Each structure stands twice: as structure tokens, then as C-alpha cells.
């Protein structure tokens, strides 16, 4: 094994952008599930 860890992030340039993407996606899902349950209640 190599001590050099130069993994490239495939879509975004930084891991921080991946974290923000996941947070926004999860927040969007929460909002959509809230709206769906409110609509069909």
C-alpha cells in the first residue's frame, strides 16, 4: 500500500461540495415528504 492518498472526487472538486450537495438533497427530501403527507392527509 502506498502512503500517498491522492483520491480524486469524481464530480465535484472538493469533498466539502459533496457534503453540501448531500445536505441540500436531504433537506429537499424532508420538504417534499412533508408536502406529500400534508397533501394526502
Task: Jot down its keywords.
0% strand, 1 helix, mainly alpha, 41 residues
Strand content: under 5%
Question: Main beta sheet: strand number and arrangement?
Answer: none
Helix content: 55-70%
Radius of gyration: 17 Å
Average of pLDDT: 86
Quaternary structure type:
single chain
Cα end-to-end separation: 56 Å
Element-level helix/strand string? H
> Which structural class matches the secondary elements?
mainly alpha
The helix count comes to 1
What overall form do the CA principal axes indicate? rod-shaped
Number of strands: 0
pLDDT < 50 runs, ≥5 residues: none
What does this structure look like?
This protein has 41 residues and is mainly α. The protein is 63% helix and 0% strand. It is built from 1 helix and no strands. The protein has one helix spanning 15-40. The longest helix is centred in the C-terminal third of the chain and has 26 residues, at 15-40. The radius of gyration is 17 Å and the shape is rod-shaped.
Write a brief structural summary.
The chain is an all-alpha fold and 41 residues long.
What is the topology?
Blueprint: H1 15-40
